[in-house]
From TrEMBL:
It comes from Setomelanomma holmii. This is Uncharacterized protein. The keyword Hydrolase applies. InterPro entries: Siderophore_Hydrolase_D (IPR052558). Keywords: Hydrolase. GO terms for molecular function: hydrolase activity, acting on ester bonds. Belongs to the esterase D family.
Length: 203
């Protein structure tokens, strides 16, 4: 079991058959309120966590990149294009924005890489994430419950703020933001992945 801040992590499945999910791990993440399942996949030709190679990472969603460096410490991860949908910028009282050191590396002018090797970032969000619409069969109480945890996340508001912070960054070759006016929290990730494919090929 591993602990990071208020979170504890333990293997959810210790071992699969060699021909069933040979490159996938599952962990249970627990905090004071909730239990989560986290899944991690790695290249099929890896034989252990001690592999030493470069991995090309195209898409990173919801902060999963935080896991990979701890899992495979000898590897180098290249992120040529990152698409971020439904990121939780409100976490820890807007820590991303209120702790100036968090985004500082992306604002520094010191860079030895060329524009061809800098990452590109696409930020996506659904307009209905902050302004949920009552569903046909949803009661007023059920709508109020959804609003109670969706509205405080301020996804559209903080996505625009993040875009404003990253736009013009000397460490990024491009930054783009997409609003999906009719998408809610559950739907926007799939839409962002589809559009992210075009973005990756273009950038």
């Amino acid at each position: 079991m591993t602990s990071i801040s208020a979170q504890t992590f333990s293997p959810h499945v210790s071992q699969f058959l060699t021909n069933v999910f040979p490159n996938t791990g599952f962990w249970k993440a627990t905090n004071a309120s909730w239990d989560y399942q986290i899944e991690l996949a790695w290249p099929l030709n890896w034989t252990s966590q001690a592999e030493n190679m470069t991995v090309e990472t195209t898409y990173v969603l919801d902060g999963n990149a935080l896991w990979k460096r701890h899992f495979a410490t000898n590897d180098r991860f290249h992120r040529h294009c990152s698409t971020t949908s439904t990121r939780h910028c409100f976490f820890n009282n807007d820590y991303v924005f209120n702790y100036t050191g968090f985004l500082a590396p992306l604002k520094s002018n010191t860079s030895s890489s060329t524009n061809n090797t800098k990452p590109a970032v696409q930020i996506s969000y659904g307009a209905l994430e902050q302004h949920p619409v009552q569903r046909r069969t949803e009661t007023n109480e059920e709508l109020a419950y959804r609003q109670s945890f969706l509205v405080p996340q301020r996804m559209p508001e903080l996505s625009q703020k993040l875009y404003a912070e990253l736009k013009g960054s000397p460490k990024l070759r491009d930054v783009e933001i997409h609003e999906y006016p009719f998408s809610d929290h559950a739907a926007v990730a799939a839409a962002a992945l589809a559009d992210g494919s075009d973005y990756f090929l273009d950038w």
